[in-house]
Description:
Blueprint: H1 21-31, E1 35-41, H2 59-72, E2 77-85, H3 91-100, E3 105-109, H4 127-130, H5 133-149, E4 155-156, H6 174-187, E5 190-194, H7 209-217, E6 222-225, H8 238-247, E7 252-257, E8 260-265
Helix pairs in contact: 1-2, 5-6, 6-7
The protein binds zinc ion (ZN) (2 copies) and fe (iii) ion (2 copies).
Amino acid sequence: xxxxxxxxxxxxxxxxxxxxxxxxxxxxxxxxxxxxxxxxxxxxxxxxxxxxxxxxxxxxxxxxxxxxxxxxxxxxxxxxxxxxxxxxxxxxxxxxxxxxxxxxxxxxxxxxxxxxxxxxxxxxxxxxxxxxxxxxxxxxxxxxxxxxxxxxxxxxxxxxxxxxxxxxxxxxxxxxxxxxxxxxxxxxxxxxxxxxxxxxxxxxxxxxxxxxxxxxxxxxxxxxxxxxxxxxxxxxxxxxxxxxxxxxxxxxxxxxxxxxxxxxxx
Length: 266
Ligand code: ZN
Ligand code: FE
Ligand code: FE
Ligand code: ZN
């Protein structure tokens, strides 16, 4: 079976990934993938915002690294992208980033539920103990809906990220999912099946089957991503991800070139 494109891969510029883009590309070619996309953590306007992303003055270096991988692996289609943090108020900065290079897509991700708490950061795990899980999920999905509606992103990243550490609310989250998916469907924004969740405490692809089922019913398109932070993670667990997508009804995924969407058969 032809594996779908891996659209979520990082580089060492974000300071918590290893391996050059050329090495990620080599691994992808070895697996028989035909298309990949680099989507490293985008810079913030303030470089000291946190310590897990490239600096704004490294954006050209990032593009050069991706272009080097393109040159070394001409048989691969290599897309140029970013995983952009969505925080309300950052829209203008994200538009500035968009104008700087010929991007193929932006993955919009919510990691921050406030300016100081990135919910997936293991260094801030203790924060979860001070908060009501459902309240965190509510804030998170409200932000995710704003991200989808903003029109700034082609894809929404790991859309049930709050489950990462295995902490889940007792309440039914379906209304939160529906609210987000309605925004995604209206804006024509895709979601990704992100296999990194299988490597975390939640031991589950992002998103969960129930959310993906609703996404399919709402005709929200999909992409696939390993969220690789090392070359060996490229394309990881894609067979399981494709199986999950098919099991809820998907027969197509999508790809992007210069921020335009095309459909591909799964
Ligand atoms: Zn990362
Ligand atoms: Fe992320
Ligand atoms: Fe990522
Ligand atoms: Zn990520």
